[in-house]
Specification:
five-stranded antiparallel beta sheet; Immunoglobulin-like; 1 helix; 10 strands; 38% strand; mainly beta; 180 residues
Length: 180
């Protein structure tokens, strides 16, 4: 039986380290979570208790937790670094039809004049769970700069005739979330 040479052992070690390194992807680094206290709303409506954005390769997923699933409007601002963003909107009506759509411009973008701010986005999905109570908004990557973006940050606003709640309470938006 032949013993492997030091160069073969070095190559095997390097390949093992590379494969292990590929298996430990930065998937844990592709999300940010915001916490918001219960009962901090300015009037009736949706009370945000937490939100998580996952910046995945082919989609952006935002899960928003609310204290109770009551009538209200939910707006999630998605802001890519060095580019204009979007607002994911869901007009929640527990006993009627809920309407959801995408608007141009994140909260941090300067207002643009004229035109319809709605952005066509095939595959945009919103799922409310009144039992949990949570809402999941799923935005396909192609809807945001044709998928050509990297880091994102986000903020969540609820409204019911006026602003009701905002997260994060102490900042303009979440920390930057790398794409993973």
């Amino acid at each position: 039986m032949q013993r492997p040479t030091p160069s073969v052992l070095g190559a095997l070690l390097a390949a093992t380290v590379l494969l292990l390194g590929l298996g430990v992807s930065p998937a844990a680094a592709d999300s940010a979570t915001l916490e918001d206290p219960t009962g901090d709303t300015d009037g009736p409506g949706l009370d945000i208790t937490g939100a998580t954005l996952r910046n995945l390769d082919h989609r952006v997923v935002v899960d928003v937790d609310v204290h109770r699933a009551v009538r209200g409007d939910l707006v999630v601002s998605v802001d890519p670094r060095h580019a204009t963003g979007l607002r994911l909107v869901s007009l929640f009506r527990p006993t009627a039809h809920t309407r959801s759509f995408v608007l141009a411009g994140a909260f941090t973008d300067h207002a643009t004049e004229g035109g319809d701010p709605r952005v066509p986005c095939r595959g945009f999905r919103v799922r409310w769970s009144t039992e949990a109570p949570t809402v999941r908004l799923t935005l396909p990557a192609h809807c945001l700069h044709d998928g050509e973006y990297d880091d994102l940050r986000f903020a969540v606003l609820t409204e019911r005739s006026s602003d009701t709640d905002y997260a994060p309470d102490d900042a303009e938006a979440s920390p930057w979330v790398p794409r993973g």
